[in-house]
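Record format v2
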Amino acid sequence: AQSVTQPDIHITVSEGASLELRCNYSYGATPYLFWYVQSPGQGLQLLLKYFSGDTLVQGIKGFEAEFKRSQSSFNLRKPSVHWSDAAEYFCAVGKTGANNLFFGTGTRLTVIP
Amino acid sequence: KAGVTQTPRYLIKTRGQQVTLSCSPISGHRSVSWYQQTPGQGLQFLFEYFSETQRNKGNFPGRFSGRQFSNSRSEMNVSTLELGDSALYLCASSRQGTIDEQYFGPGTRLTVT
């Protein structure tokens, strides 16, 4: 069965600082991995996805993530955080043949000026 | 292109009542998935419909049901509402039935009193 762990419930960073949000997954086969962002009262917006190929994937809003099979990780990074990045971030894993995602518990990002 | 729309956005119901939520996917998308989001359980998959057929179902009681129409619009129904059904219900659409990017709607906030 799939599962996703986001070990950090809440992270606070200063505007302009770099960011890394951690995600570890458990899945027997090749995982399909996603990062979504949710602003208060909103739905989820897809930041990026990994299906296959290059393990470093670029997404929207300047985010990138790196798939590391040996560590079962798919960490999200951004070199310089903006105040508008404050939101909740979810890592998710899916499997082929189905459109049901298993989500982590989320990491809430606070950005201080 | 219009995004995923969900109606109503907010709903207040009483225990024991039933409720129907509606989701209109992005034009051309044939897969619709439903998720429940609560502070305690996080994001949980309810079910997925593709071409009017339920393809996957999460671990929810039979009080939760859904359907999809020929135009890909989907509805979910919850009968005999319980206080614990209070949640944000999110709908997501995808172009195809295999693992694909899912685009989420803004959600319906259901409060059961």
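The mean pLDDT of chain B is 94.
The longest strand of chain B covers residues 42-50.
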